[in-house]
Amino acid sequence: MPESRELKTFSEEAVNHLQSTSALVPSSRYLARAMLGPLPLEAARTVVEFGPGTGAITRALLDLLPAEATLIAFEINPRFCAYLEETFADPRLVVVPAGAERVKEELAARGLRQVEAAVSSLGLTLMSPQQREAILGGLVEFLAPEAVFTQYQYLHGLLAFLQLTDGRLERFTAQGLLRRYFSRISRELVWRNLPPAFVFSCRR
Ligand SMILES: C[S@@+](CC[C@H](N)C(=O)[O-])C[C@H]1O[C@@H](n2cnc3c(N)ncnc32)[C@H](O)[C@@H]1O
Questions:
Q1: What is the spatial distance between Cα 157 and Cα 22, in angstroms, rounded to a whole number?
Q2: What percent of the chain has pLDDT over 70?
Q3: CB-based burial of residue 46 (10 Å sphere; 0-12 exposed, 13-18 middle, 19+ buried)?
Q4: Residue 134 carries which DSSP code?
Q5: Is the CB of 150 under 6 A from ligand 1?
Q6: pLDDT for the residue 161
Q7: pTM score, whole prediction
Q8: Residues 2, 184: Cα–Cα separation, whole Å
Q9: Strand partners, 49
Q10: 162: pLDDT confidence band, cut at 50, 70 and 90?
Q11: Element containing residue 39 per DSSP (H, E)
Q12: Ligand 1 center–CA 43 separation, angstroms
């Protein structure tokens, strides 16, 4: 269970910004474990996180990262950014108070050329095609050949339909989107999370 300060911060922001927060409570440790298990972290130098929130996955990631690695975490919610800065006094963590859409510019501005692992908690379903392209297209340009990217999608997200410009409805699945950017994708269902979620592990 997350500690009460974390739960309070997360849930208050979820109520105020449900669309961007996409969940009512932080991810469980089981989901965090499934998100991190496939990543090649032992020798990682640069790792990217999209949407750290109050750090449910960030915490587990910092536990596994080598001492000389850098974790670049993109978060749009200013309260979550402040929470992360206060909670994790870890020089490896760089909180970028900007949307994941800026991944390309922000990595380039820091002189970073290669990312060995990336994790995303973003609710891709409710994003525009332009946002998804900026985020995923921007990230893949930096991924090392053996890099792994993980993304979760809540189980109920499989029921999502998007309205096309001509009014027709199209089913949206994270896996369908990820296939445009990655050639190898595996999937695991994590029941022990609220709500249960699929974890997609993606390789170029
Ligand atoms: C479902 S929450 C996940 C939080 C945390 N990683 C966890 O698993 O408990 C999604 C997070 O993504 C952030 N977010 C939403 N859109 C974003 C964007 N475009 N760029 C960066 N962060 C974003 C939200 O503010 C929120 O913190």
A1: 11
A2: 96
A3: buried
A4: I
A5: no
A6: 67
A7: 0.95
A8: 33
A9: 73, 119
A10: low
A11: none
A12: 26
| CA 118 from centroid of its chain's CA atoms | 8
- Regarding the beta carbon of 157 and ligand 1, being less than 6 Å apart is answered no
- Which residues, including other chains, have CB under 8 Å from residue 78's CB and lie 6 or more apart? 97
Tell which phi-psi region holds residue 55, choosing left (phi > 0), alpha (psi between -120 and 50) or beta.
left
The full set of domain ranges for the chain reads 4-184
Asked if 174 and 202 touch (Cβ cutoff 8 Å), the reply is: no
**Residue indicated by tokens 């998100």:** 35
Tell me if residue 162 falls in helix, strand or coil: strand
- Tell me the pLDDT band of 183, cut-offs 50, 70 and 90: very high
**Beta strand pairing call for 197-203 and 70-74:** unpaired
Name the residue of 21, 95, 132, 190 whose CB sits within 8 Å of the most ligand 1 atoms, as the mutation to test its pocket.
Answer: 21
- 4-184: what fold? Rossmann fold (3.40.50)
Q: Residue holding tokens 């402040």?
A: 82
Mean pLDDT across the chain: 94
- The predicted structure's pLDDT at residue 163: 66
Per-residue pLDDT of 41-79, as tens digits, reads 999 999 999 999 999 999 999 999 999 999 999 999 999
136 vs 3: CA distance, rounded Å: 32
**Please, are residues 44 and 66 in contact by the beta-carbon 8 Å criterion?**
yes
Q: List Cα–Cα distances, 74 to 58, 71, 107, 125, 177, in angstroms.
A: 11, 10, 11, 18, 21
Q: Can you tell me which residue has the tokens 């609220």?
A: 194
